[in-house]
Amino acid sequence: MTSSKIKAGIIGCGGISHFHIQNMIQAQNTEVVALCDPSDSSVKQAVRLITDSGYAVPPNEPDIERFLATYDMDAVLIATPHTMHHDHTVAALESGLDVLLEKPMVVNTEEALSVIDARDRTGRTLVVSFQGSLSPLIRQAADGIQQGAYGELLSVSATIWQHWGILAKDTWRQVPELSGGGFLFDCGAHMLNTVADLVGEDFVEVSAWMDDFGRPVETLSVAIARLVSGAMVSLHGCGETIESCSSDIKVFCTEAILDTCAWGRTLSIQKAGRKRAKKVPYPPASSVWDTFVKVRNGEIDNPSPAEVGLRMIRLYDAICRSAAEGGRIVKIEK
Predict the structure, then answer these.
(1) Is 0.90 topped by the overall pTM?
(2) Cα–Cα distance list, 24 to 209, 223, 250, 278 (Å)
(3) How far apart are CA 29 and CA 7, in angstroms?
(4) Topology (CATH) of 132-284+306-331
(5) pLDDT tens digits for range 275-297
(6) Tens of pLDDT, residues 117-161
(7) Which CATH code is given to the segment(s) 6-130?
């Protein structure tokens, strides 16, 4: 190992962290120096990925305060259950570390504002791992929509679906104290974030309904919303369908229709006067960790800052408030 490598810690060694670990190893610019997770089984799986690639076994300190105080690190990946994100992120930032934070950023608007305050006070880098915001296709589509390249924004129709009710059964994702929400807040957070990122403006009112299908958290949600510009948005999350996982987001403008997905894997654009949509080729893209490193080094602007997470959680908060009151229209105040 050389001193030029980024010394990284990992807080939360569950399944999604393995994806990031592989990216860290492939980048060859990062050394995983320590882990923080109370679960022996999760730690063993993470260690196996690291050692199978020829790296030394990193120590595990399950207590986050001792973890942050003990190890010499430059940055951390935070991939803990959703309700832990705020405290872990603030603690890491205040320890002088840059942070790559798994989605969703936090569980409510108050926490989002607190995280932004901690980032600004410490001057550290914070990137939220939303695949949509990090996708070059979503960046291209969002820039075009917000710059008026496709005419006036009229409406957005977005749906995401998965057999989540069965898939996440008996996991922390269906424990409200850990998950902070159900399907719409877990898998569906990708859709909410990508829609918010595409339109690039605030939501001003929402009406929503939810059903938990007898589970501890919601698994079916429908919401309709209005943007500052007057454009309208429909949002549908179904977590009780057949074995599957997919999404569809259509953006209707006066001069074009854009079709993409919650994760920004594809983008098709049908412009006025054309009978068919044209698929936009996926440009070369960095891994999530590589993008984080480039932001940290000042090579690129942050494509997924905490402000994106704030807009998304303000929308989700309003959806929950409306659903709790039988679909009452909720005004979203900044």
Answers:
(1) yes
(2) 40, 38, 34, 34
(3) 9
(4) Dihydrodipicolinate Reductase; domain 2 (3.30.360)
(5) 999 999 998 888 999 999 999 99
(6) 999 999 999 999 999 999 999 999 999 999 999 999 999 999 999
(7) 3.40.50.720
